[in-house]
Amino acid sequence: MRQPIAVLAAMEQELRLIEDRLHRPNSHEAGGRRFVSGTLAGVDVVTAISGYGKVGAAATVTTALDAFAPSHVVFGGVAGGVGEGVDIGDVVVANRLIQHDFDASPIFDRFVVPSLGVAEVAADPDLTDSLLNAAGAYIGGAFREEMARQGKPPFEAGDTQVHVGLIASGDQFIDHVAQARALLSDLPHLLAVEMEGAAVAQVCAERGVPFAVFRSISDRADQKADVDFLAFIATVAAPITAGVVDELMQRLR
């Protein structure tokens, strides 16, 4: 197999449709994780589920890099929207990521990752541009058509937007308005919050591997987050994740 692109997600539901689309899938075990290799839109890929949280994400991407030497890493899934105008059903593509619960002060400034010397880790600009274009094409085309065929989704599909900006990660499920407001107070430009992306960003940056992260907005990080989250995963997140990744591979091919 040629050098593949690694496609990772936290949850099985987020990755299932991608694996269903793989041509000649092959299952592998490495580092306590199950990986599936194959081709998608003519591109060699390898997929894996990281599980929730930064440790699982870091361990999974490290194993993927060691076992499969991917040329690029793409992490997808869901997130809570916290930025103004970031609504349920939108897609956020990260141009940079930060660990909102990392604090090695006073030795280092708050949020700064000592091994990198920065707080915000920049995603690969070329891969991010390709991902942003892929998300826009999919959301504006096949996704909207599919939602129309299925009937009205839990949001207005015509209002779905694609954003690019800062995503924050931490080992907490943010499900209260006060938590979201506190994050925005510390990080005014924050668009979305999740539990894995910045860990993937740190590992890839340290290893010099281009990476990109995108998220479907499942909730507004408030008291309804648990209800919105489960419904969104079941009906919308998996098609968005698979559709955007498929569109991305067609562009990278």
The description of the largest β-sheet is: 5 strands, mixed, barrel
CATH topology of the domain at 76-252: Rossmann fold
Mean pLDDT: 91
Shape: globular
User: What value does the Rg take, in angstroms?
Assistant: 17 Å
Within the largest sheet, what's the order of strands?
6-10-9-7-11
Low-confidence stretches: none
CATH class of the domain at 76-252: Alpha Beta
N/C terminus separation: 15 Å
Question: Could you describe the 3D structure shown?
Answer:
- With 253 residues, this protein is α/β, with parallel strands linked by helices.
- It has a domain of 177 residues: Nucleoside phosphorylase domain (Rossmann fold, 3-Layer(aba) Sandwich).
- Helices cover 40% and strands 28% of the residues.
- The protein contains six helices and eleven strands.
- Strand 9, helix 4 and strand 10 form a beta-alpha-beta unit.
- Helix 1 runs parallel beside helix 6, helix 2 runs parallel beside helix 5 and helix 3 packs across helix 6.
- The longest helix is centred in the last third of the chain and has 28 residues.
- The chain is globular.
- The mean pLDDT is 91.
Q: What is the secondary structure topology, with strand pairs?
A:
Blueprint: E1 5-9, H1 12-21, E2 23-30, E3 33-40, E4 43-49, H2 54-68, E5 72-76, E6 78-81, E7 91-99, E8 121-122, H3 125-150, E9 162-169, H4 177-186, E10 190-194, H5 197-207, E11 211-219, H6 225-252
Helix pairs in contact: 1-6, 2-5, 3-6
